[in-house]
Amino acid sequence: MSIIRPITNDTVHRICSGQVITDLASAVKELVENALDAGATTIEVRIKNYGLDSIEVSDNGSGISKEDQESIGKKHYTSKIEAFGDLDTLETFGFRGEALSSLCSVSDVTITTATALESPKGLQLKLDHEGSVISKSTVASQKGTMVSIHNLFSTLPVRRKVFERNCRRDFSKSISLLQAYAVISIEKKFIIFHQTKASGKVVQFSTNMNSDINLNIMNIFGTKLSSNLVRWQDGFIEGYISRPHVGSVRLSSDKQMVFINRRPISLPKLVKAIQEVFKMYSMSQAPFFAINLTLTEGTVDVNVSPDKRSVFLSEENFIIDFVRESLQRLCEGTAHSLTESKLQ
Ligand code: ADP
Ligand code: MG
Q1: Which of 32, 33, 37, 181 has most ligand 1 atoms within 8 Å of its beta carbon, as the pocket-test mutant?
Q2: Are 198 and 251 contained in the same domain?
Q3: How far is C-alpha 32 from the chain's CA centre?
Q4: Residue 102: nearest ligand to its CA?
Q5: I want to staple 192 with a disulfide (CB 3.0 to 4.6 A). Which of 70, 79, 204, 209 is the partner?
């Protein structure tokens, strides 16, 4: 008697969704990436009660056309790639077509959307846990999309309990991630609200259509931090880092942001290398930095993990060595190609 059977689609969906949306931060990140991919210039995030009550992301992007509305919650349905080879020239954050379907599987999703043709009228769609549209109603809506998530992880009781226990930590991880997207987004406006019963609606941070990331840094982290940064521009590296040689002045933040081709990523080896070099020149313990590495097509593989934060780099050692040597030159102040600019 055979004992090996296929798992039903519904079960596969639930198993995999828990890996795409692992915590509040991954839910927020997927929604913001979708807004950016839709060409939005204004992105508003509203989180209620550390995300336990709701998360809402509104954008003024393309909107979702009527023809696509039934597909939006389906697993592996995407408008961003058609074939594997498209990954080499990918210009969008998303490509796996699984964020919205996974969010449907683990929460209650409502989407309000209007394209330029339909605005000021739009449609509000409610989706079920399988990603099917269960109700549609006409509402007033400007061009763009608003995705609302309620009861995150209500379908995964253990994870909901963990979320309730760790909601403050998850919330601050989400804010850090949002800061990274806001820092790297030029000429876009981000505004992030958090609402609790105790404190009402509070703006966490905002940016305002800035033309350089140093102004984004200033909007988000304040002038005290931004005025202590130096510009770091060398070969494929572009960004800002804490001014070395600041003596015993302790820096107020130790945030480290690495972007590859403007995608926020996690590359602990590179962060460690930067910290090591910086320590040799500075008393402050950890530098703030936000750097973008412009790498050529075909040398970066972003399809390593469902959250697309991990990457494989075919020239990893070369890149890390170059960054290390470049920072040494910057710290020694010898490289004439490096310009130092004090931010206002
Ligand atoms: P992916 O981003 O990998 O394509 P998602 O599940 O995140 O997968 O989204 C599925 C599709 O829904 C996207 O390809 C896009 O066409 C559409 N979509 C999602 N969010 C938005 C949005 N905010 N504005 C416009 N279209 C959107
Ligand atoms: Mg997406």
Answers
A1: 37
A2: no
A3: 6
A4: 1
A5: 204
CB of 79 shorter than 6 A to ligand 1: yes
Whether 215 is in a domain gets the answer no
Residues of the chain with pLDDT under 70: 80, 245-254, 284-285, 303, 334-344
Identify the domain containing residue 320 by its residue range. Answer: 223-332
Nearest Cα residue to atom 19 of ligand 1? 34
Domain-located, residue 2: no
CB distance 69 to ligand 1 below 6 Å? no
Ligand 1 in reach of 78 Cβ (< 6 A): yes
Classify 52 as helix, strand or coil: coil
Number of neighbouring beta carbons within 10 Å of residue 134: 10
Instruction: Note the pLDDT tens digit of each residue in 81-124.
Output: 777 777 777 788 877 788 999 999 999 999 999 999 999 999 99
CATH of the domain at 249: 3.30.230.10
Q: Which two tokens stand for residue 78?
A: 């995407």
pLDDT of residue 336: 40
For residue 30 and ligand 1, the question of a CB distance below 6 A is answered with: yes
The whole-angstrom separation of Cα 308 and Cα 300 is 12
CA atoms within 13 A on the CB side of 284: 19
Cα 166 to ligand 2 centroid, rounded to whole Å: 25
- Ligand 1 neighbour 144 (Cβ under 6 A): no
State how many domains the chain has.
Answer: 2
In this predicted model, what pLDDT tens digit does every residue of 316-342 receive, in sequence order?
Answer: 999 999 999 999 999 988 334 344 444
Are both 118 and 158 inside the same structural domain?
yes
The DSSP letter of residue 85 is G
Q: Are residues 50 and 114 in the same domain?
A: yes
What does the alpha-carbon distance between residue 40 and residue 144 come to, in Å, rounded to a whole number? 8
